[in-house]
Amino acid sequence: MLSSMRVIVFASQKGGSGKTTLSGHIAVEAERQGAGPVALIDTDPQGSLAKWWNVRKDPQPAFIQSVFSNLFYDLDSAREEGFRLVVIDTPPAVTRAISEVVSFADIVVAPTRPSPHDLRAVGPTVDIAEARGKPLIFVVNGATQRARITSEAAVALSQHGTVAPVTVHHRVDFAAAMIDGRTVMEIDPFCQSAQEVSALWTYLYERLQRADGGYRQEEGAAAASPHSRVFGRRAAQ
Ligand SMILES: Nc1ncnc2c1ncn2[C@@H]1O[C@H](COP(=O)(O)OP(=O)(O)OP(=O)(O)O)[C@@H](O)[C@H]1O
Ligand SMILES: [Mg+2]
After folding, report:
1. 116: domain range?
2. Distance, CA 99 to ligand 2 centroid (Å)?
3. Cα(10)–Cα(155) distance, integer angstroms
4. Which of 47, 153, 187, 192 could join 237 via S-S bond, C-beta 3.0 to 4.6 A?
5. Mutation choice for ligand 1 from 174, 178, 183, 184, CB with most ligand atoms inside 8 A
6. Domain holding 137: CATH number?
7. Mean pLDDT within 11-31
């Protein structure tokens, strides 16, 4: 059990690396493994995570409607509401706003596909995490079974930071499950994709237990300001 609310930020400059897919999956898995209550925040104007959540039947994990400028207050409110974990998805960009989101993170997770383009694009994400003094964890996502480039990617990434010891492989069930608001675990909890997500969450959970940086109660003690948040069934898109 985590002693205080923790925040995981999924960030990577490269589009399509798996930020939204893994944000949703990790939030659901954390809830399934008893680390909840868990809340999701989508800071991407595309709203892919919000759209996924809106078609979910299970209201857990919760969804907090927020925007960059209100994140400080919304995270503070989430902690007061009793949430134990908040998972934040971000757009594929490197901006001051994303750097500010990262400032709330206990850990930053950067999904990275094992491709030369993705590997070359990790620099700015590394810089943001370093500038904010946040632990960065790469997750190799979308890997092909037994492809040499997967291990080569892990080695290349390890030059820049920590690489999760769990590789998430390319499987159509990740995309298929999300069509109707589910995850691979909710379709078949014993499938290989579900086992990878479970192992990834176990690793991230250990890292969260070790992380003592990030969001603090006293940081969020400022007076409340008008902000938008919902725990209901519909997230604005
Ligand atoms: N492990 C995987 N296996 C198969 N498909 C995957 C996997 N991970 C992600 N995808 C698919 O790849 C596409 C991009 O994934 P996703 O939307 O999660 O990336 P993203 O980093 O959030 O993209 P963006 O930067 O545009 O927000 C989606 O269609 C998703 O279903
Ligand atoms: Mg996305």
Report:
1. 6-212
2. 16
3. 21
4. 47
5. 174
6. 3.40.50.300
7. 97
